[in-house]
Amino acid sequence: MKTKYIAVWVLAAGLMAGCGDKFLTVNPETALSSNNFFVSESDFKQAVNASYEPFRQMYNERAWVLEEMHSDNTYYARNILYGAVDPTENVADFAVPTANGVTANDNVLVQYRLNYRIIARTNQILALIDGVNFDAASKGNLKGQALYLRAFAYFDLVRLFGKVPLHLVPVTGRDDAALPLSSTEEIYAQIEKDAKEAITGLFDKTKQEAGRVTSGTAKMLLANLYITQKKWALAEPLLKEIVTSGHYALMPDYNDAFSFTATNKNNKESLFEIQYMEGSSGYNGNQIYRFIPSPITAAEIAPITGTSNPQQTSQESNNIPTPDLIAAYEDGDKRKDISIGYVTLSGSAVENKRYPYIKKYARPHSIHQNTGQNWPVYRYAEVLLFLAEALNEQGKPADAATYLNQVRTRAGLAASKAASQADMREAIFKERRVELAFENKRWFDLTRTGRVKEIIGAYGAKVKANPAAYYFPKGAVPPPNAFTVLDDYYGLPAVEAALTPHF
């Protein structure tokens, strides 16, 4: 039983805090548990590092499915040789089967569990760190990271599901493993509490280890929460603190806002990015291979990936830029050619055989299916756009224009002509779409602005009316249930529902 629970902690469950005094005081010398591991600063550093680990799988495999492809920015390109409808296709089609508030969709389940893995690991840290003596500044920074990561995981969960169980202490056994669903407001309140406390302990970017969250990152998360809640006056000062800190700036070239496979990581524009490392250590990603149109030959993929051993792929194609997004770029926008490339596939069943692909993540690397570029979560460009939004919603469109136009200037565009609050609101909404394309922002922008049914309803009608424009082979059409589930939240995972009486 002890071995079982130690293993479960490694995968992110609780520890055996409630199995009796004798059990707690007798530990095999060769076994690690919370009773004999968390005794030094080094131990907590290792535990904090482990709390970042689930992000690699999350951003490589699932977040873009649920938060970008579940929008009008990208779509799922069919390969008619694959007959079955898969869970990813259902997400792209707004056709996730849901009954009684739960779904069996695998993307939902994995994203849910990865977030709770982060939460369980940070709960263990937060439960014990104050009881161990070491340097106060280092302790504050490590505790701040744990608080941020827990808050971020709950922020992702609450925006995806609306209501989830709120675990704030380590799970000790079956009795406390299943909690009732907390309300959206209760989860928001906990995110706010954690983010505020994280800000006080975290180092700023000049002092923090590269790749770790900073006080600026925590301010951005808290501002994002306030923006989601429409608490514009609370978001504004946080965003201005980031702007005036001097720690962040727009990279002069939009292309350099994103890392390469081994360079330009955690640059001046970065507030938080998920760390990947090309090579055999197991820290690599392979997002571009999940996104690339297919079937693609080795000769066709070689210019995109730059590898020494290009290989053909024949899988379904995911996260393909839509004609709607492509049309959203203004003439002369430098971001368009940096973000989107085109490839002609000789083996495609689509009539013109030409597809767009996400070029901003197609960084040259050495080995097929092994990439090292980081994934951007928060960039300074979004700080400026959030600040513009917060100001505009307080009736200050002229002030908002100052920050909006910084983003537009880098893109090679003229200043926005929006003058009224309503026009500025739409200008910012459109600017976020192209500036932050493929960064998992679009779905949350649609839900927080209440525009899911309006925008996705119209988008779905266009897909159904002209499937060929959305990468369907000749004669193929969307499934009958496509664009029928236009809810702001996903159903909770059915597998988890089977383990709890609460949903």
Structure description:
This protein has 503 residues and is mainly α. The protein contains 21 helices and eleven strands. A three-stranded mixed sheet has the order 2-3-11. The protein has a two-stranded antiparallel ribbon with strand order 1-7. A hairpin with a 2-residue loop joins strand 2 (98-99) and strand 3 (102-103). The longest helix has 26 residues, at 136-161. The model is unreliable at 1-27 (pLDDT under 50).
Mean pLDDT: 93
CA-based shape: globular
Helix and strand composition category: mainly alpha
Question: What is the strand tally?
Answer: 11
Helicity range: 40-55%
Q: Termini distance?
A: 28 Å
Taken as a percent bin, the fraction of beta residues is: 5-15%
Secondary structure tally, helices: 21
Low-confidence stretches: 1-27
Radius of gyration, in Å, reads: 23 Å
The major pleated sheet works out as:
3 strands, mixed
Q: Can you list the strand order of the major beta sheet?
A: 2-3-11
InterPro entries: SusD-like_N (IPR033985), SusD_RagB_dom (IPR012944), TPR-like_helical_dom_sf (IPR011990)
Organism: Dyadobacter beijingensis
Signal peptide: 1-17
Domain SusD-like N-terminal: 22-226
